[in-house]
Amino acid sequence: MKLILSLKEVIKKKVMKQLVDKQQLENKWRNLKMAYKIVIADVAELGEEIIDVTFESKIPEGSFARSSDIETIIKVTGKISFDADKLFMRDSAKKMAEWSLVKPESGDSYKKVTVEYVHSTAPRKYELSHAFVVSYHETFTKTDGEFELIIKQKKDRIDGVVIE
What we know:
Layout: H1 2-33, E1 36-40, E2 44-46, E3 50-58, E4 71-81, H2 87-100, E5 111-117, E6 124-140, E7 144-153, E8 161-163
Antiparallel strand pairs: 1-2, 1-5, 3-4, 4-7, 5-6, 6-7, 6-8
C-alpha cells in the first residue's frame, strides 16, 4: 500500500513539474510575441499577434554590378484570433485585407509602415514611408487563423526607408 502511495506521489510531482515547465514556456513565448510592434498608418497596429517579421533589401539577381534598382521588402506573419477578448485582431486582419485590394491609382494604396523589434541588446526599427501590399494571405482552421502580409517600398521613394 505504501509503495502505491509513493508511486502516486512521484507521478503527481512529475505532472506538476510538467505543468510548471509548460507555464514557463508559454510565458517565454508570450514575451517573445510581445517583441514586435507594427504600425500601418490608417490600417492597423499590431503587437502580440505577430509571429515573425523578415526584412529584405535586394537588387535584381541578374545584376553584375551594384544597381540603383533596389527593392525593400518586409514580410509579416501573425495570428488571427477569434477569442472574444482578441477581436481587435480580427478587425486588423480585415483592414489589411482591404488595403491589399486598393487600386494603385488611389493615394490610399501607399501607407507609412513602422516595424519595431524590441530587444534589450539588439533593438531594430524599420520605417517605410510609401509601402504598398505585394500580397496578403489568410489561412483558417476551426479555431483561429494566420495571415501573411508582404509589403514593398515604392521604388522611387527608396530613400524614404529608415533603419534604426
